[in-house]
Amino acid sequence: MLANKTFYLFIYGCQMNEHDAERIVGLLETYGAMRVDSVEAAEIVVFVTCCVREAADIRLMGQAASIKNIPLPADSTLNKRIVAVGGCIGQRDGLELLEKLDNVDVVFGTHTIDQLPGLLIKAASDHSRSVSLLEESAGFASDLPSHRKHTWAAWLPITTGCDNFCTYCIVPYVRGREKSRTLEDVLDEASLLVSEGVKEITLLGQNVNSYGRDLYGSPQFAKVLKGVCDTGVDRVRFATSHPKDLTDEVIALFGTEANLMPYLHLPAQSGSNRILREMNRRYTREAYLDLVRKVRQANPDISLSTDIIVGFPGETEEDFQQTYNLVKEVGYSQVFTFIYSKREGTPAAEMPDDTPREVIQDRFDRLVALVQENAYQQNQRFVGRWLDVLVEGPSKRDPRVFTGHSPHNVTVHAKVPSGVALEDIVGTMVQVRIDEAKTWYLTGEVVGE
Ligand code: 5AD
Ligand code: SF4
Questions:
Q1: What are the pocket residues of ligand 1 if the criterion is a CB atom closer than 6 Å to any ligand atom?
Q2: C-alpha distances in angstroms, 43 versus 62, 80, 192, 234, 289?
C-alpha cells in the first residue's frame, strides 16, 4: 500500500529530530515509499516537529495549513494528500491536533515511530484519522532501519528523555524520563557503523553526561565515550552536555583521545547566579567557568559553544550584564542565542515576567553582536594551519568549491583540486591549508595543490 507512494518530510528542531527523521525515511523506504524533495511531488507529507519554543508551534500551524492548497501530483492514485504530524508536538498535543488542523490524518509521538507505516496505510485505505502515542518508550528503537543523510556520518542516540526539569523547558514533560541504552548495545552499533564506513559518530542525548544513571546506578558517560573512541572511528562528537554532570573523567578524554574532536557544546543558559537558580540549572557561574578552565587545560585548542536564553522572567540589566560578561570571558566559537519563550506547564510560565519586549530585543541584539565578534576572533587562530576536513559536497555558491567541517566543527570551503571529481572525495578526509577566516567559515587550499 505504500509501495511507490511519494513522501516529503518537514524536519524542525534538534539533532534528535534529525535522527528520528532518518529512521522515518529508512522505515518508509522499506515499505517501498520514495522520498521526494518538494511537497508538490509528494502524496504523503510527514512533519517531525519541535515544541521547545513557541516559534516552532507557529511554524507547524502555518506550514500544515498552507499545504492544503497544493494539488496532489497528477499521477497519484490517492484522492487526498495524507498528512502526518510526529515528534514533540505530536507527543504533546495528541488528539487535539486533529481538531486544530483539519487536514491532518495521522498523529504519532516520539515513542511510536514504528507505527507510522501502519497508520499511513490505514489512512490511505479508509480515510480514517488516527493518533498513536505512548507515554514512555518501551526501550530504544535501535532495530528500526535508518536512512542516513550522509553515508559517512551517523547519529548514535545513547539516551532519550530528560530528568533535569530546568524551569523554562518543556522537554522532560514531552520526551519523558531519561532512559539509557545499554553500553553493549551502543558499542555494538558503533562497531557496526564503523564497519559500514562511517567516519564520524555523534553521540546524542538531552544530557549525555548522565548516561547510564538509570541502568547502572551512576553515570557512565566516560566509559561509553571511551568505548566509542576505541572503535577507531575517525571522529567522535557528542551533544548535549549539562555542566552540572560533566565529570573530570570525561574532560580528561579531550586530552587523551585523538579522535575525540576538539569541540564541546556546553550550554550555560545564563551568567547570572540568581537566574541560574531560578532556572534550576544546579551550577553557578563560578562552577561553569571552572569547567571551562579544566576543559582548556585538558586540550588548549578546544573550541567551545553554548546556548544562552535572553529575557528569562525577571531578568534585569544587571543579570544580563553577567551573561554578556560570561560570553565575553569564555570566548565561544559559536553561541546559540534564544529569546525566552513561555511554555505552558513549565514552572517558569508561572513566574512574573514584565520586562518589555523591546528591552529584551535590545539585550538580544547586543549579545548577538558580541557572539559574531567572538566567532570572528576565534576563527583567526586557524589561519595558516592545516586542518583535516571531512568533505560533504559542493558549496551552495560554487560547484567547483566543496564544503566540509574541521575538527573544531567550523565550516571550511576549498576548491576541488584540479583533475579530481568532487564525487570521489565526498565522504573522505582531506587536508586543507587555511588562508582566510571569516565569522562563520574558513577558506583554504587542499594541501598538495
Ligand atoms: N525558551 C527559550 N529557549 C529555550 N530553550 C529551551 N527551552 C526554552 C524556552 N522555553 C533553549 C535552551 C536549550 C536549547 C535547546 O533551547 O537554551 O539549551
Ligand atoms: Fe531541557 Fe534542561 Fe533537560 Fe536540557 S537539561 S532538555 S534544557 S530540562
A1: 52-53, 168-169, 267, 269, 307, 309, 338, 340-341, 343
A2: 19, 8, 34, 39, 52
